[in-house]
Amino acid sequence: MNIVVCVKHVPDAQGERGFSDDNTTDRENVDGLLSELDEYAVEAALKITEAEGGEVTALTVGPADAVDAVKKALQMGADKAVHVSDDAIAGSDALATSLILAEAIKKVGQPDIVLFGLASTDGGMSVVPAMVAERLGLPQVTQVSTLEVADGNVTGRRDSDVASETLVASIPAVVSVTDQINEPRYPSFKGIMAAKKKPVEEMSLGDLGVDAGQVGLDNASTKVLDTTKRPPREQGEVITDEGDGGKKLVEFLAGQKLI
Amino acid sequence: MSDFSRNPQLNRLLGIDGLLTEDEREVQALVRRFCDDQVRPHLPTWYDEATVPARELAKGLGDLGLLGMHLEGYGCAGSTATTYGIACHELEAADSGIRSLVSVQGSLAMFAIWRWGSEEQKNEWLPRMAAGEAIGCFGLTEPDFGSDPGGMRTFAKRDGDDWVLNGTKMWITNGSVADVAVVWAQTDDKIRGFVVPTDTPGFTATEVTKKMSLRASVTAELSLVDVRLPADAVFPEVRGLKGPLSCLSEARFGIVFGSIGAARDSLETAIDYAESRKVFGKPLGGYQLTQGKLADMTLEVSKGMLLALHLGRLKDGDGVTPEQISLGKLNNCREAIAVARECRTILGANGISTEYSPIRHAGNLESVMTYEGTSEVHQLVIGNALTGEPAFR
């Protein structure tokens, strides 16, 4: 069972996140890390290969620092990694990202399962898994909280507000998993040391046969025109209890349509 | 990767990050994340109730590869000494009791078997101990013999091929949760070390309660009454105090780093508190007396960490002497407890609550400055190194 896990290097949500001059996510002035939601995908992949055998390849697209995301996956236990990096990729939208990922997955060799997390913790669009599935012509089982591999199929449960759906697809398939599926492991010290010896293959757009004119900010089908910083939180309202505190509290909550 | 200190201003002042390798920073981040998830949220309760889930923690620490991490082979990670020191530092930033669990397992019990044990003893115990599946303890100190272990009364007598052990060991970390005890005993041929499975008839461990220090750590008294062991239970080569003292040197090395972790955590807590607590309408940190305290404490954390790293680089390079480790143990424990106590004063009345770390660290450090050689013993070790005049007795 060979699995490619697609992971993203995102700005640390605990730091000060912002935008660059061209309204793309600022990746220069913040510390980055493997998107927490992608850790669940890495864990899911490792669990499958530990049970079934096979190899886990961590794949990421991003600037030089993005290699840290696949390194973390290697520390957790992935076998090898691919980092696609090219100046022309900067500012790519989801469509272009899915194109690059799909071509990289083909280059790695047709895996049995392509795994994704629920969404990136920066862009948060959740559309790339479906786009990659379309580009590869593979069935997609997205946003599942359970995952089983048996008899040439993947089976997962997708929970929504109104129903839980059980989805089955034949392998090869594209799967994305939620943060309910497992508890990602910590990389161990041995994992950290072992990761240094694991191969990280660097690829450029040329290696993938993707034309620079198909990707990047200038060729994006959507554009962020402007951003505004969220205003600082205003001072909350303090209700002084003069015998009618309860009533005023209820009035406030009702006014906010909270009750 | 994380910053050395959680407080950005303190981190910039200390500038330790630049002195650490990528591995060391990764290990610090790994230990910090583990402690944030699995240790720190529970510490006030563990401390209050004087209980700690040692077995569960050992498994988690074993999964991370932190048990006997600086040893080579037998399932151990084989890290550098400094990397191990950094792990101790971050564990003790959470609690000295958790670092003690790791020190006793890795530097005392495992190191003793790794350094002095037979191939069979190593193969039997080390892989399981590295994985945290078996817990070890180290029986040297006795009720009446602490700084003078050579006077120990525990005796191992030959009976045919067997050994029969009798005696009492005191203040034994992990004692009542251990699967194996390394026990040092007098024999007809000097002091020797024995590997004692704790289910051997005649071996009992009684937890020491009513402690005011290291409450999130298991401490026990070991009683050995006609404990019969096979011939191969003894460490084959080593005789005399050299055996146990070599292990203490290892554990002390971890304490040199660890104690500064407790000080750093106390200081971070005090700086946060001084920034947010208002006194007479302005932050406590805006008063000169508070700033004086914070500045002086930052000096000691800075110097202590530099000394720890210096000893770590020596140990990873040409080697470090026991006397040099005494410099670190003496200075860093002494300064760490002073820092923790001073931080407590900045927190005022809140400082006596276990919701804040300084008083817990200060309480713990009473033990840390006592075990693995008291401050007084380390003064004498250093005095002897300088003058050539042993003044121990």
Give an account of the 3D structure.
Chain A: Belongs to the ETF beta-subunit/FixA family. Chain A: Pfam families: ETF. Chain A: InterPro entries: ETF_a/b_N (IPR014730), ETF_b (IPR012255), ETF_beta_N (IPR033948), Rossmann-like_a/b/a_fold (IPR014729). Chain A: Heterodimer of an alpha and a beta subunit. Chain A: It comes from Dermacoccus abyssi. Chain B: Keywords: FAD, Flavoprotein, Oxidoreductase, Transit peptide. The complex is a heterodimer of chains A (259) and B (393). Chain A has 259 residues and is of the alpha/beta class. Chain A has a single domain, classed as Rossmann fold (3-Layer(aba) Sandwich), CATH 3.40.50.620. Chain A has seven helices and twelve strands. In chain A, the strands form three sheets. A seven-stranded parallel beta sheet of chain A has the order 7-11-6-1-4-5-12, with helices on both faces. Chain A has a three-stranded antiparallel beta sheet with strand order 8-9-10, with no helix packed on it. In chain A, strands 2-3 form a two-stranded antiparallel sheet. The termini of chain A are far apart. The radius of gyration of chain B is 21 Å and the shape is globular. In chain B, the strands form three sheets. In chain B, strands 2-3-7-6 form a four-stranded antiparallel beta sheet, covered by helices on one side. In chain B, strands 1-4-5 form a three-stranded mixed beta sheet, covered by helices on one side. Chain B has three domains: 8-130, Acyl-CoA dehydrogenase/oxidase, N-terminal domain (Butyryl-Coa Dehydrogenase, subunit A, domain 1, Orthogonal Bundle), CATH 1.10.540; 136-233, Butyryl-CoA Dehydrogenase, subunit A, domain 2 (Beta Barrel), CATH 2.40.110; 242-387, Butyryl-CoA Dehydrogenase, subunit A, domain 3 (Up-down Bundle). In chain B, helix 5 (81-94) runs antiparallel to helix 9 (288-316) and helix 6 runs antiparallel to helix 7. In chain B, strand 8 (278-279) and strand 9 form a beta hairpin. Chain B has helices spanning 8-14, 22-39, 43-49, 54-64, 81-94, 96-116, 119-130, 242-276, 288-316, 322-346, 357-368, 375-387; strands at 136-139, 155-159, 162-173, 180-187, 190-197, 203-207, 219-229, 278-279, 282-283. In chain B, 52% of the residues lie in helices and 15% in strands. The N and C termini of chain B lie far apart (48 Å). With 393 residues, chain B is an alpha+beta fold. The chains are: A alpha/beta (259), B alpha+beta (393). The interface between A and B is medium-sized, with 11 and 17 residues.
